[in-house]
Amino acid sequence: MIIDLLKNQVAIVTGGTRGIGLAIVRKFLEQGATVILFGSRPETADAAVAKLKAENPSFSIFGLAPNLTNSNDVNQAFQDILKQHKKIDILVNNAGISSRDSIYNYDEKDFDQIIDLNVKAVFTCSRAAAPIMKQQGHGCIINTSSMVSIYGQPAGCGYPASKFAVNGLTKSLARELGRDNIRVNAVAPGVISTDMVANLPEEMVQRISSNIPLGRMGTPEDVANVFLFLASELASYVTGAIISVDGATQV
Ligand code: NAD
To answer: How far is CA 9 from the centre of its chain?
Structure first.
């Protein structure tokens, strides 16, 4: 078993209260990091912190719930974290929502909501983190993309559009921030068994699963393992990469 890959590291994980984000938080904690998870509400952030503390009282875990689409809120949260923990080594931009709405009845507000959380929040959090990471001489940003950023999807066009944009932010920020020793990568999960997938029609999950060469849907831990690799020194020369974790799913 690998241990202490993230010893003395301070990490922020947005959308860390459940699903893939919670698995990333747990993985980072197990490897010695201090983690500040962001939730959509203080109650869900507090509940996730309590759950992790119950699992292991020595976990160094904290929770916050800034509005990720509000720059003032985000900047304040990052400054508070910097004040308390003295540095921010790793930022995981994972919070996200999906959509299956048809273009024929796609509500404009729903489209804006997806772009706001899935794209703008990656921008607001990365913009808050970059100067801190530059100042300390190193940093690592990892974004949660999706396999739909390669294939698109046959409904809910706002979601793949947002993940194509996440890839664009990833590749552009990797080029912009490399000279400041800040690595920027993305992980593109396939179909992973979380609440997000629980909302898909069963027929669709079955159809997708039967086409996965590895013969099963992914688990949040399958995905978290790749975040751990990218966050660690093992990935010291990896930046601008979008790594698929999808069992070779083709849709
Ligand atoms: P989930 O619904 O289980 O978790 C989503 C997380 O985002 C939660 O922690 C939630 O608190 C947070 N969140 C939702 N709305 C928010 C808001 N307005 N403000 C702040 N936080 C908010 O979903 P998941 O499957 O774990 O998805 C996590 C990421 O993985 C997303 O970016 C998603 O697009 C991506 N993804 C998921 C799958 C999958 O199959 N589950 C596949 C590819 C990519």
So the answer is: 17
Residue in 26, 44, 49, 196 to alter for ligand 1 test, most ligand atoms within 8 A of Cβ: 196
Report residues of the chain scoring pLDDT below 50: none
Cα(121)–Cα(104) distance, rounded to whole angstroms? 27
Ligand 1: which atom is nearest the Cα of residue 145? 44
Report the alpha-carbon distance of residue 93 to residue 122 in Å, rounded.
Answer: 6
Tens of pLDDT, residues 217-233: 999 999 999 999 999 99
Q: Does domain 10-190+222-244 have CATH number 3.40.50.80?
A: no
Query: Per-domain residue ranges for the chain?
Result: 10-190+222-244
Burial class from Cβ neighbours inside 10 Å (0-12, 13-18, 19+) for residue 7 reads exposed
CB of 137 closer than 8 Å to CB of 181: yes
Query: Active site residue: 106, 151, 159, 237, which one?
Result: 159
pTM value is: 0.97
- Closest C-alpha to 170, from 186, 193, 151, 157: 186
